[in-house]
Amino acid sequence: MKSFNLPKSVKIVEVGPRDGLQNEKDLVPLEVKVDLVNRLSKAGFQNIEAAAFVSPKWTPQMANSEELMDRINRKPNTVYSALTPNMQGYERAVKSRASEIVIFTAATQAFAQKNINCSIEESIQRYIPVAKAAKRDGLKLRGSISCALGCPYQGPVSSQEVVTVVKQMIDLGCDEIDIADTIGVGTASQVQEVFEDIFSFAQPTMFSGHFHDTYGQSLANIFAALQTGVAIFHSSVAGLGGCPYAKGATGNVATEDVLYLLEGLGIHTGINLQDVVDIGDFISTAIGKPNGSRVGRALLAKR
Ligand code: HMG
Ligand code: MG
Questions:
Q1: Ligand (nearest to CA of 52)
Q2: What is the pLDDT of residues 118-130, one digit of tens each?
Q3: 118 assigned to active site
């Protein structure tokens, strides 16, 4: 791959325990969630999105985030991230010793209203004290921007709408910012356009691609993003997941599939693909769902 200037290594943020499981209708037993996070820690993921301190009325599956954070075996250098929609969530995250606070809004007003019950501007105002507290307490701060490539309510989304929110997230002091394709409709050229527009004023190193795979475009979109300099990607083991406030949206791109792509490109992740295939098999069996990773299914069939 001489013609592309690709990063030499990539950080994978494993979001299966949070984004992956939040949409499950039946309550996933706590011990299964704990086991999942522990297996992921053992596999060497640097960053695991483990919990969401959101309103339990809005996302019941995440209601036991305190118990989960209390029971997991933490590895010293692993970052355990938690979604925090407001100060109430922040207090819960701190008590649970989350190592990274994730504030989240959207590129569209319609999705912000549906997901966090306020406008984009109101969410930014709400995050000012959260961001200040995270800085004061020495915690990492990440900002996530939903519907950056399309919205189930508004339809198409312009890169200028994304850029506006990126600038607000930078002003809040975010260390990392996620460009999220919540409903998995984005295409490779759109991905390049949005990242190129962002990188005209911001450093590529602080941005990640968070792609759901609804239209099967995630791997192409990751490849497109890699070429712009993005070196952080979110994925879910076995392709678990979806957002309860984005009807029809399927899971994140499967971690196994991303690892296979990156290995083929000679890009280092520090994660062993076969270990993740095992974890994908474990969690799919535990929740009684077909394994959503094509690489996972192919490698399991060969065993
Ligand atoms: P609201 O109803 O406007 O909030 O919800 P409120 O302040 O009026 O509070 C209502 C009730 O919720 C009160 O309880 C509060 O105490 C409680 P009551 O007095 O009625 O008994 N409450 C809380 N409880 C525990 N922890 C909290 C909390 N906050 C309020 N932190 C709110 C506003 C933002 C809280 C709500 O809309 C919410 O929790 N939204 C989150 C929905 C969600 O979980 N979505 C999925 C995650 S985002 C995602 O998946 C996208 C992402 O993956 C990127 C992508 O793919 O796009 C990140
Ligand atoms: Mg998501």
A1: 1
A2: 999 999 999 999 9
A3: no
